[in-house]
Specification:
- By secondary structure, the chain is mainly beta.
- It has a single domain (about 20-195), classed as Distorted Sandwich (Ganglioside M2 Activator Protein, Chain: A).
- It contains four helices and 13 strands.
Length: about 200
Amino acid sequence: MLLPLLLLSSQMLCQVLAADYEMLIDDPEIFTDCKENPPGAKGISGLFNLDELELTLDGDKIHVAGNATTVWDIEPTDRITASARLLQLDRGIWQPTVFSIASQDFCGIMYDKDQYWFKYWTRHVDDIDTMKGKCINHKGTKLIHSPFDLNMVLNNVRGTTLHGRYKIVVTLEAFDDEKSVKRPDSICVEIIGDCERL
């Protein structure tokens, strides 16, 4: 009888200690090139032509509407790895946090409904059934978005407090698996802002 009560109490305590945080982005352009770029890395303009995409910053929301066309010049057969990491500025140095996601085959999960990428981005791409055969490794692919708001909010954060200056670093790398080589061009972008508890 005591064990179930202790488990229930600890679960309730975890839920009570959970908090939501918002990230207030500085740059109205949203994406910046990585400050510590890996060799051969390009910024967002190396991945997409954003001339037809409207990104509008409004507090903790980014309004997204329009089209993005892939310009990354790699082979359609290349495997793409993707990672997103949250770093905190601490005494002038960007320190890693416990928050990160990664995929060794991004094209395999780009339209997977159970993935973060889908939840926050690709579910808003029109005609998903047709687009599933294409990925960011197909130069010239146009991703047509239904207008949506991207909330820069982390929900139910437990075990850590987020306060101060943070950045999200997204890195994409392409691999020719037949030759077992990494392509020289990669993508690295940052989103920088301040996190506050809601």
